[in-house]
């Protein structure tokens, strides 16, 4: 169950970098509406190498996010889920993951094709890296 919670959290975190109705940084945000791959987690709270497929998330301009996760405990079968996101400030986002709570974190765009998301899981800082 813990692994599934982490997978859902990871998926939810993808949603933090979606577009919003804000026109601030519109060029950078417009490029976020796409499908992103989770490429690393530090510290590694989830082993991304257990399955050949990597988790993905598609950001939707309407404030929803759809993700596909792969879990070795489930024979690496794709698990799809949806959630919502909200931009709270220039770099702060909240996401609601169905069946769980709302998560807050900071997004840092490295370039148009990569960003990190910094959040806390049970009081431990965790950085997720995503690439297009």
TrEMBL record:
Cell wall biogenesis/degradation is among the record's keywords: no
Keyword Iron recorded: no
Signal peptide: 1-20
Transmembrane segments: none
InterPro entries (UniProt xref): Lipocalin-like
Sequence ranges assigned to domain Lipocalin-like in this UniProt record: 32-97
Keyword entries, A-Z: Signal
Protein name as catalogued: Lipocalin family protein
Organism: Salinimicrobium flavum
């Amino acid at each position: 169950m813990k692994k599934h919670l982490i997978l859902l959290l990871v998926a939810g975190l993808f949603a933090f970098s979606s577009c919003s109705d804000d026109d601030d940084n519109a060029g950078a945000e417009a490029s976020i509406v796409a499908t992103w791959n989770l490429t690393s987690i530090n510290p590694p709270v989830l082993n991304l190498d257990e399955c050949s497929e990597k988790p993905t998330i598609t950001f939707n301009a309407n404030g929803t996010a759809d993700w596909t996760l792969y879990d070795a405990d489930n024979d690496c079968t794709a698990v799809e889920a949806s959630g919502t996101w909200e931009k709270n400030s220039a770099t702060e986002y909240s996401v609601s993951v169905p069946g769980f709570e709302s998560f807050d974190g900071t997004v840092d765009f490295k370039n148009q094709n990569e960003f990190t998301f910094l959040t806390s899981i049970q009081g431990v800082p965790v950085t997720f890296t995503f690439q297009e």
